[in-house]
Design a protein that fits this description.
Keywords: Metal-binding, Mitochondrion, NAD, Transferase, Transit peptide, Zinc. This protein is α/β, with parallel strands linked by helices. Helices cover 34% and strands 19% of the residues. The protein is built from 12 helices and 12 strands. The strands form 3 sheets. Strands 5-4-3-10-11-12 form a 6-stranded parallel beta sheet, with helices on both faces. The chain has a 3-stranded antiparallel beta sheet with strand order 2-1-8. The chain has a 3-stranded antiparallel beta sheet with strand order 7-6-9. A hairpin with a 5-residue loop joins strand 6 and strand 7. Helix 10 packs parallel to helix 11. The longest helix is centred in the middle third of the chain and has 20 residues. The protein is globular. The N terminus is likely disordered.
Amino acid sequence: MNFGLTFRAAKGRWMVKSSRQCSRGSIGLFVPPSPPLDPEKVKELQRFVTLSKRLLVMTGAGISTESGIPDYRSEKVGLYARTDRKPIQHGDFLRSAPVRQRYWARNFVGWPRFSSLQPNPAHWALSNWERLGKLYWLVTQNVDALHTKAGSQRLTELHGCMHRVLCVDCGDQIPRRALQERFEALNPTWSAEAHGLAPDGDVFLTEEQVQSFQVPSCARCGGPLKPDVVFFGDTVNADKVDFVRRRVKEADSLLVVGSSLQVYSGYRFILTAREKQLPIAILNIGPTRSDELACLKLDSPCGELLPLIDPR
C-alpha cells in the first residue's frame, strides 16, 4: 500500500512531497478504523480518572498515529499489515557496518519530516493532566519526543528517544539534529527518493540507493553511532525498569493509552499493577494482551477521547 509520501534528497536540499490524499492531512492514514464514541464508555473513563489520585499513564504507538506516525501492529494500516518489512534488530546493527549504513541512510531521508511532527490532542491532554496534578507519572514506549514537545515533565521514555544519538563504544551523546548536519556535509551530492514511511522515523530505500551513503563515526573516539533507542532484540536498562516499577507501585491506578502491550517491556508493568491490585483501564483500538486484566476497555482514537475527560 502506498500512502503517497515521497521524500527526495538532492544537492543538500531535502523536500517532502505528498499526494492529494496525503495533503488532506496524515491523521487518518495510520489510524485503524474504530466504532463511534460510546457516551457511556466516556462516562466510565471519566469516573475512572476522577477516582484516581495517583494516576500512572503508559502510552504506546497508538497515541502518535494521529500525529502521522505509523505503528507496527494496527490492522490494515500498521507496518506489518502494509509491508513485509521488519524492524531493525539490535544485534544486526551492532555487528554489521552495511546494516548501519542502510539504517542511517533511511533515517537521514526520513528525519526532516519525522522531527517536524507535532503532538496531537491526546499528548496535550496528558500534559494538561500533569499540570493540574492528576497525572502522577507518564511512561511512554514511543521514541518520537511528542510528549516532551507537549510539555510533559513527569515522564520516562522507556525505549529512549530518536532525538538523541550515542556512541556505542564511549557513550558520548549528541543531539540528532547535529548528526543530520554531519550527514549533509559528508553526502553533499548523494540523492535518494523514497516512497512510504516506517515507524521510528525512517523511510524505504533500495539497496542500490544506500551503497554510496557515507556514515560518520563518533567525533570523540571513532566508534559507531546509534540512536538512543532500544532496538528490537535489545533490553531496557535495568535501572530504568526498576524506576518505572517503583512508580507503578506508588500509583493508585493505571491507564494504558494506544498500546497493544504485545512487547514485554511494557506488559511487565501491567503485571506489576495486577500484583498491587490496581485498577487498570485501556484505551486502544483493537485487542490488547491485557484486556482480561482491565476493568475498562475502550476502542477509540486517543485524540478524540482524552480531551473529553475532565482531570479535575
